[in-house]
Structure formats: C-alpha cells, structure tokens
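Practice problem: predict the structure.
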Amino acid sequence: MEPLIDNVECWVLRAPISEAVSNAFGTMTHRPAVFLRICASDGAWGWGEVFSNFPQVGAEHRARLVASIFAPLLTGVAAIDPVFVCTLLEHRTRQVAIQCGEPGPFAQITGAVDQALSDMAARRAGVALWRHLGGNNRIRVYASGIGPGRVAEVAAAKRAAGYRAFKLKVGFDAVRDVANLAAMREALGDEATIMCDANQAWTPADAAARIVALAPYHPHWIEEPIGADCEHADWAELAARSPVLLAAGENLRGLAAFTGAIDAGYLAFVQPDVGKWGGISGGLAVARHAAAHGVAYCPHWFAGGVGLAASMHALAASGSADGYAEVDANPNPLREEVFEFTVDDGWITLSDAPGLGVEPDLVRLARFIDS
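Answer:
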C-alpha cells in the first residue's frame, strides 16, 4: 500500500537583526521564515519553506492558510509524487485563491509542499536530493543583497569567505547606484563577477538610461530593471537597448508565464523561486525550457536555510552550466543555524546526506519561533 500524508505542520520564526536589510521597494527589520514539515504513514518526512519576506507581517497568515486550508486537503493524499500532489492542490485551491484574491500566497505554500515532498522522496530512497534527481553536487554561488551601505566592505568580506560573484542592490538614487557599483568594482577588481538587482524600481521609459550609466563597470546582469508585470514588448525593447544582459523570474508565477518570457527572447538568466512558485519540480521544468533556449537557470532565494538548500539542490539537478545559486550576504540565523556549507573559490559541494541534507533543530530554534 502506498504511503499517505498523515500530518502537515508549520512553524513561524522571526529572527532579530542588528542592521536592516533594504532594497528599492522596502526594508526588512527582522528575518521571518515559515518552515513546513510533511509526514507520511510510512514514517518518512520532508521539509519545505514558504516565502514570507514581504510583507513582514505575512508569515503568520501563510501559516494559518496551511493549517486551515492546505493541511486538510493534503491529509490522506498519496505521499509519492510531488508533481501529482501539487497539481492536485492547485486544482483544488484555484477557485478559493481567486475568491480571496490570494493566488500568490497559495502558490507559495504549494511550492513549499513540493520542496517537502521532494525532500521526503529522496530521504525515503536514502540518497541526497541532487542525486535522486540525477544531478551533480557541485554548484556555483553568488553573494546577494549587498548594499546600499558599506558595499565595498561587505563585498570584500564575502570574497574572503570564498565567493567570486556578488550582487549589488540598485534602484535607489541614480548617483548612489553608480557610486556603489564603482566602489564594488574597485574593491573586487576586474576579475570579479558582479550582478545588479533593481527590484523593479525603474519604468520602461527610464530603465535603459539607468543601465547605460552602470554599464562601464561591467555588470554580469541587470535583474528586474522594470516591473515583472510589464508587457513582453517593454522587456524586449529594453533588452534591445540595454548594453547589459537582463535577468528576471522571482516574481513570475506559473509555467506559462516563464515559458512566455523565455520564448519572447529578452532574458539571458531566468530566476524562479522555490518558495514563491513551483517548488523544485516547477523550477526544474523552467530550467529545462530555459536550457532549450540558451537561457541560464539561476534560482532566486533570499530567506531561510530550508529553502536555500532546496534552491541549491534544484540548481544541482538542473544541469545548467551557466547557472548560479543565490546566497544572501546578510546575517540571518534562520539560514546559518539550519543549513551549513562552505564556499570554495565560488563553488559549493552539496553533501551526500539524504534529502535536502537539512533537519531544522526546533529546540535550538525555539527562541525564534513565533508563538
């Protein structure tokens, strides 16, 4: 008899931070996380993480959605195939998501369910998830979320920690953006790979000029220079005018949205987020389509250690030769105390531990659990 899901649990965690984390649209004054665990009737279990960065008050709401809507729907469902289960969830929650105007949070929870069931499947097989999915355990990473303050100092510290690629937050004042990128380039040298993330800050009318101003410092990509919901024609026109390659994807939802953007030809790097849509299975579907069109798969992640591990295993399974995994450069105990790894000359070697290789210590993390 196939194992069935018999328990779905969720924990909201909040970690204080000494220095706020800012981007073009907002500031994080603490670090939230929503960890989800699914257990099956055969004793297997798996972990996932739900996106909950913004709004900062949204973590509890997502956990309540899990308890009130998703857990009852999942209980008794076969705990074997993540794609089947998540497709079933999407079908069963579609009208409710529309009714309450929350397709985003519903997709985020479903993405965490996919992570947990993927973790469970590999644990059940007794192998690491990257191996279970037929991947390689060596992946490139970059240090993300640098700026707008102390950019040269933070970048130098991350280089000393083994990173060779770095992402700067832009989308602030034009003068400050250029000065920060210039400072990072001077501190890191010509050999460093530097990306820029504008977090949708610019309009289609002004984005090209803002990118041209940054171009002399040779950014590897410009991420989300304009709104994720701008028309394909706006993105294509910007790509034609931009001296820097474009990246996006963390704010797309649904395979059709990703394939549409890739097919339109304006992205060089695509960045699905395992905690926002699709989990690992959806991300790999995007990666396969991207590979067929010469687009690099670079999964987005900027939260806790469970989702980071899932993001890294997805990249490891994708076979994307030009891909990078994102690692937040800012202190976050919900990452650091959950998933430990070493960066060696810009690369990480994932362990052979079963599943995601992470097991959150809820006793150790109890001081962060929001009860």
